[in-house]
Amino acid sequence: MYEQCGTPAYVAPEVIGQKGYRGFKADMWSAGVCLYVMLLGTVPFRSNTMEELHKLILKGRFDFQGEKLSNEAKDLICGLIQVNYRKRLTAKQALDHPWLQSV
């Protein structure tokens, strides 16, 4: 599937880069964005234009805005919001992550 759908700030980079929807790996990116939003109250990638938003997502650079998150929480988010889908955490890896095991 190559058509983008859903909220633009949650779309995985491989979908934006015209490589198509890669099932669960793209969903894990979106889960990482959701976790970021739940813990910080805002999305990791923000822009006034769709073109700039896509550039930010493709670069995959974000920060934690000075928020005092645990290293485990940051590690989980970074494992999910990973531009290279081959390196992105799977659902099982995320569920087994120390941060989720501790809550």
Which key terms come to mind for this protein?
103 residues, mainly alpha, Transferase(Phosphotransferase), domain 1, 6 helices, 0% strand, globular
CATH class descriptor: Mainly Alpha
User: What number is the mean pLDDT?
Assistant: 89
- Between the first and last Cα atoms, what is the distance in angstroms? 35 Å
CATH superfamily: Transferase(Phosphotransferase) domain 1
> What order do the SSEs take from the amino end to the carboxyl end, as H and E?
HHHHHH
What is the helix content?
Answer: 40-55%
Strand tally is 0
Query: What are the low-pLDDT stretches, counting only 5+ consecutive residues below 50?
Result: none
Looking at the structure, the CATH topology is Transferase(Phosphotransferase), domain 1
Largest beta-sheet characterization: none
Helix/strand-derived category reads mainly alpha
State the domain count: 1
Annotated CATH architecture = Orthogonal Bundle
Q: Which percent band covers the strand fraction?
A: under 5%
Helix count from the secondary structure assignment: 6
Radius of gyration: 13 Å
Explain the overall architecture.
By secondary structure, the protein is mostly helical. The chain has one domain: Transferase(Phosphotransferase), domain 1 (Orthogonal Bundle), CATH 1.10.510. Helices cover about 50% and strands about 0% of the residues. The chain is built from six helices and no strands. Helix 2 runs antiparallel to helix 4 (about 70-80). It starts with 12 loop residues before the first helix and ends with a helix. The model has no long low-confidence stretch (mean pLDDT about 90).
